[in-house]
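step 4 of 6: structure.
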Amino acid sequence: SSTSAGESESDQKTIVIGIDDKFAPMGFRDENNEIVGFDIDLAKAVIEKMGATPKFQPIDWKTKESELSSGRIDLIWNGYTITDERKEKVLFTKPYLSNAQVAVTKADSELTELHDLEGKVVGLQSLSSAADALNANDISKNVKEITEFSDNVLALSDLKSGRLDAVIIDEVVIDYYMTKEKDTFKILDESLAPEEYGIGVKKGNEQLLNELQSALDALIEDGTAGEISKKWFGEDRLLK
Amino acid sequence: MSFDYILSVLKPMLEGAQVTILLFLIAIVISIPFGFLLTLASRSNIRMISWMAQGYIYIMRGTPLLLQLLFICFGLPMLPVVGEYLVLDRFVAACLGFILNYAAYFAEIFRGGLLSIDKGQYEASQVLGMNRWQTLTRIIIPQMFRVALPAVANESVTLVKDTALLYAVAVPELLHFAQTAVNRDFTILPFFLAAIIYLLMTLILSLFFKFLERRFKFE
Amino acid sequence: MSFDYILSVLKPMLEGAQVTILLFLIAIVISIPFGFLLTLASRSNIRMISWMAQGYIYIMRGTPLLLQLLFICFGLPMLPVVGEYLVLDRFVAACLGFILNYAAYFAEIFRGGLLSIDKGQYEASQVLGMNRWQTLTRIIIPQMFRVALPAVANESVTLVKDTALLYAVAVPELLHFAQTAVNRDFTILPFFLAAIIYLLMTLILSLFFKFLERRFKFE
Amino acid sequence: MSIITVSNLKKSYGDLEVLKGINFNVDKNDVVAIIGPSGSGKSTMLRSLIHLEEINDGTISIDGQELVKNGVYAKAHDLKQITSKMGMVFQHFNLFPHLTVKENLEIAPKMAKKEAIKVIQQRSEELLHKVGLTSWAKSYPAKLSGGQKQRVAIARALMMDPEILLFDEPTSALDPELTGEVLQVMKDLAQEKMTMIVVTHEMGFAKEVATKAIFMDNGEIVESGEPGALFTNPQFDRTKAFLQRSLSS
Amino acid sequence: MSIITVSNLKKSYGDLEVLKGINFNVDKNDVVAIIGPSGSGKSTMLRSLIHLEEINDGTISIDGQELVKNGVYAKAHDLKQITSKMGMVFQHFNLFPHLTVKENLEIAPKMAKKEAIKVIQQRSEELLHKVGLTSWAKSYPAKLSGGQKQRVAIARALMMDPEILLFDEPTSALDPELTGEVLQVMKDLAQEKMTMIVVTHEMGFAKEVATKAIFMDNGEIVESGEPGALFTNPQFDRTKAFLQRSLSS
Ligand SMILES: Nc1ncnc2c1ncn2[C@@H]1O[C@H](COP(=O)(O)OP(=O)(O)OP(=O)(O)O)[C@@H](O)[C@H]1O
Ligand SMILES: Nc1ncnc2c1ncn2[C@@H]1O[C@H](COP(=O)(O)OP(=O)(O)OP(=O)(O)O)[C@@H](O)[C@H]1O
Ligand SMILES: [Mg+2]
Ligand SMILES: [Mg+2]
């Protein structure tokens, strides 16, 4: 599979999907620099079902809504959390995966609970739902500093190098890292907020939304989506 | 750090470098003549034109290229009414941003080049019966380019390095892939590789301009 | 576009501008003398020193500042063994990157300034019985700074604009907040505001240097 | 008959009146030396003749045609045709640095497109021979000494076949050692009866070669006449003072 | 007694032998004019005296002390002390553009710290008066004419109280009109019995003021002697040819 499957069959419509190519395991680059991940596999299946061709466009996550509204991408689909604020600007499919924002520290850290973050330096991805989740929690008023990164990986790498005390991040994402790099991180007991992932479509494009929703529903129905989930998470996590 | 690993990291980075080179070529080929037109406009006898050109140059040189790129790529589509017609392909948008920005810098360089040309050159051309157009094209511009060459070389090297900004408008380039690999593999090596590729590109460019300078030394 | 809205967008941007200004001041104050030392080193009679200085200048000028920032901030901690001692505070890392980079540019500027000083100045100083140190500090450096002033001004304006790169090492600056607001509110206005703030900053800086140039005109 | 007549020529820069009503004639084959202290308006006057300066008032006729009449200039097309009868040699040569010596000579005739390239090339070779620079044809001006540059500049002016040659201090920018070769070329031209107007500080040349000398001071012609007489027996104190200063130094 | 003796002075640039064994003496209160064609080595010789050029062989004594003996230079400290007996005036003035006229005069004495600032300031005022530039004390050099600059340069050299003054073509970079004022200052110095060595193209000055003339050609001293005799009755053809060329132009 290639990042720009593009115009292989000219009569097929191409749907451009905006992703953050540093958001494992939903969408990221493997050793061969290919974009892979749960959302990538799912998107390929769904778009094919729709009779179109997917094109994955890595974007700066900070600009995702701008990208969508400009029409350069058709969908935002990469662990994109449904929030009320975003609903004002973006059409969402029904949620297909549940997630939570959690606080992560180094494995050897003394921090154990959310309120231990008081006076600590916390990192997160710029303009992500982690920011919303943290702000919604009272602890946000007591942390020393919140640092925003252009992607989660940079935040995690800063956590490892010790510039950060904790990172607020998607549970799905940190789960993946913790299986890859054992004993590096640990998750604080309470999670910040439960949330759900959906696919973002430009306002006004209800037709695309509907096609997408029915294709997604069909794949969940017939188990294809479940297979993909098992491949990446070892279980079927899809919301039915 | 096996050789295979280096190769596997290098491949996407070299693909990114192609984007860099392509954008560089497009930007330089268009922004140099455009910059020269701006120079002429800024020296125009018509006040309005000269003001507008100078204002343009001032704004482009006074704000970050990164802001200009974001503006063109994400800002323009948000303009009311006309916005929807201003959605450019992101590579086209990037080229446009670089061209608009660098034209202003080249315009300043050429302005300096024109100023450095002695009044006597115009006078000699005039008394020899050459008209304004002949004087400009045969006498002034060749000398101006010669004078401007070192500054143009400098600016071109800066242009190569500025392509690192492309990722802000989601055009995948060299540095982005290096960063991806650094984060994924937790090694500093890709940064070194990227530095070497940039150094090679800027070195070749510098040598090319050195050659031009020697070629047009007029001695 | 209510006035309240503008204010609410402007507030974080102005806070970001403070970071910009702080970094600018630190970087300029340190990189100018450091650059001058580099100039002297690159003209040293000791081959090793002059080569190292020139190599340093070449590498810093041949690779993107963005790469250098990423290298210092995220690359250094990944070095084996020593990495853990190289975890700098991100603002410190950013300052360091700007200083190391700009020192190379200032070194080149000062080198040009030194070259522009007529041999006769050294000879006159010598026959008047001034020693090398007196000649350097009283005769050469003041003239060199005068000659270099316009180029230093230019470079300083570039430095202000380059602070837009701070976002890459997660130091929140002006442009970052503008981008956040644009993406959140779907309006181009914050980009305009950012442009105006940058223009103001570069304008004030230019005026300051114009003043210096007039002050040290020696006429 | 006069080939140049200038009457009541006035020229100001802002409030500064630089030429205060100049009158003089130049006959065909004359060699006119214009002398006078710095700032007296010599250059301005010379440059006005060939329309490098716009005058404020007065009349200039060249070869019977009026370049400017009572301060009103001829039409653009006529202007060009009238000034084309004159060539000019500058103090700082003003060679085109990006062209070789030969190209310097040939560019203007080629642009004018009046003659076949063959003819132009033949003449450029002749003229280079005349000024003794045949072997430098392919060199760029940067390689030449000042004296050689000025000889190229003279040859370049001659390429346009002018009836009158104007010189503005042609040897002032040269090392004393190099003035001789330029003056020699000018003497040769005088011998061939070229009409010349020469602003100069070279009193030797003025005395020896000029058929007429004009002494200017403060925007006016103080006196003029046969050079021998003017130098040995000036009528006015201003002339006397100037000559004393010039000859003693 | 000779204040300067030069014997067997040799100097090469790479393969180019520029000075081929020069011998001459200068007595106290002499005014020596050095003349000769371009490239003959005049400047190199003069600059060697004050250690702006390192010579390859030969001996130079200044006021009884050996600056260099058979090609071996004195120790650094002595070098400085010996050269401090001489002052030098350059063709292109070499004033310090970032200092005012008065500061130009005072900087070197102040650096030397041998005298009280009061004394230095008093002398700078005297010398400015002497060269007629009192009213320009606070101006920067850029504001001055060439002649004024050169007078400042002379005053600056005098501030160090030299016993010998060297001039390298002090008027060559000046408009002819401005040479007079510089030559006048030099004449005054000659009258006050300053020992001077002057490389010059000003034959008038050489004849009138110099007590001795040296004609150099091709790295050698061709002849030397009393200027009147040398100019009117040169012994060698080379001298004759040079004088003819110089005086005619
Ligand atoms: N472009 C100009 N603008 C203003 N004043 C000028 C300009 N050109 C010349 N002048 C003034 O006009 C006067 C005459 O100048 P001009 O060059 O004709 O004198 P000149 O006799 O040729 O002197 P020189 O011997 O120094 O060449 C001078 O006072 C000069 O300052
Ligand atoms: N730094 C140098 N390197 C190489 N050659 C030099 C250097 N300085 C002078 N020369 C050569 O030495 C010779 C003598 O030069 P010098 O300047 O002493 O002559 P000069 O008699 O003063 O001439 P001029 O009258 O033109 O000043 C010339 O051939 C010159 O080209
Ligand atoms: Mg003049
Ligand atoms: Mg000399």
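step 5 of 6: annotate
 - Residues E 42-43, 168-169 surround magnesium ion (ligand 4) (CB under 6 Å).
 - The helical segments of chain B are 3-42, 47-62, 65-75, 90-115, 119-127, 132-162, 174-185, 189-215.
step 6 of 6: archive
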